[in-house]
Amino acid sequence: MIPFEIIALTCEARGHPSIQVGNLIRGLLAHVDPLGPSAVLSATFFVDAHVPSGYRQAKARVMDKIHAAFGTEAPPVSVVAQPPEGGMSVALEATILVPGLEAVSVSRREMGGLPYTLVEAPGIRQVHAGGIAGGEEEEVDTARQAGTAFAKMEAILTTEGLTFGDVARQWNYLAGMLEVRGDCQVYQAFNDVRTLAYGTSEFPNGYPAATGIGQKTGGILLEFMALKAPEGVRVEARSNPSQIDAHRYSEGVLVGEPIEDLDGKSSPKFERAKVVARDAEEVVFVSGTASIIGEESIAIGDVRAQTRTTLDNIGVLIDGGRPTYLRAYVKQAEDIPVVREVIKVVYDGVPALFVQADVCRKELLVEIEGVRISR
């Protein structure tokens, strides 16, 4: 793993959204100075957009500012329709190189109009990609959108000599995640298509760490980080003994009917966490984690208790240590202060970003992901 860090930038909830976007990008460029724009490996903007037209405007606003600021050095960008906390129009999370690295090169590449970042060092190739959309946001055919998005993702991986089995971390943003269209739930249809897409690859080190989460609009959107690790680098899945691995869920906790191409419903193909380590250096990617014990939701209706259980689960995955960074998805905006308070008690001082989003089960009120980076 080529060392990186994750930062979150927010701004005051006032002024035109275009000004807020510009301020965030300037803050990002100031953060990576003097490394320069190439140090930004990927960027994810969270925008307060609830309908397709508003999302298109927000996305165009972000991309115009990105291209003006970065020019030909623009990183892969995702624009996610998840309103940030506190009435902000936009918030930004970015993955950036750490300073002081030697023999590391960064190049911007493109596949089918999609930019991505290739980071190379002796014996290792690392790909950061985002903004992989499955079609127009008005479309309701989840399986078609998901299939298109995964085909684009696979094309990038193949170009760089990688497969789905080399993906360490993946994000899946789904508009209308909990809706049932016909007999199929959007999230279940996505999981079915993911199973078919992953069927082209082998997973000797387990599935990726991943988050499957709702967004207000924008269809299906994917992001990922993949790497070809050299000898001496350990890549492995990590489970939580208190939770059944998501890819082993029974059909009883899966909603709706499978898509036509499958005889039965597919479980979500991700690991609770993914570890990339060499000697004393270790990165633990913690998947989207919720108040689930075994495969059952716990503390129904109690956001405070759900947050505590979620953090307990995360604590197991990072061996009782402290995360380096957290992102919290909260179903109801009014619950964000409670979630923030509980996180502060457990992990005071850990940077965290809070957004509003539907979680994978209707009874779940919060989902939290994170990363622990040890050097």
Radius of gyration: 19 Å
Strand segment count: 20
Low-confidence stretches: none
> What is the molecular shape?
globular
The whole-number mean of residue pLDDT values reads 94
- CATH homologous superfamily annotation: RutC-like
Structural class: alpha+beta
Count the domains: 1
Task: Please work out how many helical segments DSSP would assign.
Answer: 6
The residue fraction in helices comes out at 10-25%
Please tell me the CATH architecture by its name. Answer: 2-Layer Sandwich
- Summarize the biggest pleated sheet: 6 strands, mixed
Read across the widest sheet, the strand sequence of neighbours is 5-6-7-12-8-11
The ordered string of helix (H) and strand (E) elements is EHEHEEEEEHEEEHEEEEEEEHEHEE
Give the termini separation. 11 Å
Strand content: 25-35%
Describe this structure in words.
The protein has one domain: 60s Ribosomal Protein L30, Chain: A (2-Layer Sandwich), CATH 3.30.1330. The N and C termini lie close together (11 Å). A hairpin with a 2-residue loop joins strand 5 and strand 6. The longest helix has 19 residues. The radius of gyration is 19 Å and the shape is globular. The chain is 25% helix and 33% strand. Helix 1 packs parallel to helix 2, helix 3 runs parallel beside helix 4 and helix 5 packs parallel to helix 6. The model has no long low-confidence stretch (mean pLDDT 94).
